[in-house]
Write a structure and sequence with these properties.
12 helices, 13 strands, Aminopeptidase
């Protein structure tokens, strides 16, 4: 064979090897993503099943979380602390994420928030110009395991105090930013001796949980988020919504921390609400702004949309890629292996003439 022909054959062989390697990597990535999504989908299904029907009926039919601005309402599902709420908004085209903490005493459409159940709160907020697209209700009895599952939370403690654990140990909580594990989070809330103290402590822990769940992290934490929702919350969020929220946080951008003062009307906090919703902020708007750098390995939007749309069916794609990989590998082995004398010798020799 001429030198030019041999060079062409070698190039084809190298291309085949590179194709095998590429397909192998693609199959591994797809398999990993599909595995993560399969577990996430099962966890989310458990959480969705616990959401009360009246709450689900009060929510609007919405497009994907990556398609338009959305607001998620997070609060406790029961108990005295159920009045507090944290709203989380996303504005995809501006890479904007915002948190708005509402104390139980907040007046919403003429009623204090602690007097409104979740369905009523959704309607009252809509009357104030805030459309709630999603809901997540956290079981207060599962706060400790939830916080441990998240790897701890950070709260902004307003007053120094000492609490006693069930075994009689003293825990000191200093004023300022505190990092709490599950046991300390339960002790932090359990130390309250008045309703107002309980509301403040529960509000702080709730805000810490929401911030930690929605912190910018990689897709490898999707399983953790799914487990948190499955064991400690009821929500209408889908696995596609969770993937979208993770991707939005990976993009980076501006993050706002907004707070409505206690015993005030939300109607009197319009500047705060407008900034939270991503509307034009007035000079001196009260929300704290900090910028989050985008992750270097954030996937392209098209990849995220494929993951959202196909979900666990990526398993099928990875299996087909593995089959194709095996077939190509077999052909390469036949081309490079020793001569054989088999009923299929003619076909084998034909391949060897093409790839000597």
């Amino acid at each position: 064979m001429e030198a030019g022909g041999r060079l062409l054959v070698r190039l084809i062989q190298v291309s085949a090897v590179l194709l095998v390697v590429g397909l192998c990597l693609a199959a591994v990535v797809l398999g990993w993503v599909a595995y993560e999504l399969r577990g996430l989908s099962g966890d989310i299904s458990q959480s969705q099943a616990r959401l009360p029907a009246p709450v689900r009926a009060a929510l609007p039919v919405h497009a994907g979380v990556l398609d338009h601005p959305q607001v998620t309402l997070v609060r406790y599902s029961s108990g005295i602390s159920a009045g507090a709420a944290v709203l989380f908004s996303t504005v995809p085209d501006r890479n904007l994420a915002a948190f708005l903490t509402l104390p139980p005493s907040t007046q919403v459409n003429g009623s204090p928030l602690h007097d409104l159940n979740t369905r009523q709160a959704i309607g009252a907020l809509k009357a104030e110009g805030i459309t709630v697209d999603h809901v997540a209700l956290i079981d207060p009895a599962r706060v400790g395991p939830l916080v441990d599952g998240l790897g701890g939370i950070t709260v902004d403690n307003k007053t120094t105090f000492v609490a006693l654990t069930p075994d009689g140990r003293e825990l000191r909580f200093d004023r300022g930013k505190l990092n709490l594990d599950g046991n300390h989070a339960e002790a932090y809330v359990g130390a309250a001796t008045t309703r107002e103290q309980l509301e403040r402590a529960s509000e702080a822990v709730l805000a810490g949980i929401v911030h930690k769940v929605l912190a910018p992290t990689g897709f490898q934490r999707m399983q953790t988020m799914g487990g948190v929702l499955a064991n400690s919350a009821a929500t209408d969020l889908t696995d596609g919504d969770v993937v979208g929220l993770v991707e939005l946080r990976l993009r980076g951008g501006a993050a706002l921390q907004c707070q409505v003062p206690r015993h005030t009307s939300i109607a009197g906090q319009q500047a705060t609400v407008n900034q939270f919703l991503g509307k034009t902020a007035n000079p001196g708007s009260p929300c704290r702004v900090h910028h989050v750098e985008g992750a270097q390995l954030a996937p392209p939007m098209t990849v995220v949309r494929v993951v959202q749309h196909y979900g666990w069916r990526l398993f099928v794609g990875s299996a087909l890629l593995m089959m194709l990989l095996a077939m190509i590998a077999a052909v390469v082995l036949v081309m490079r292996g020793p001569k054989v004398d088999t009923p299929h010798k003619g076909a084998v020799e034909a391949l060897r003439h093409l790839f000597p």
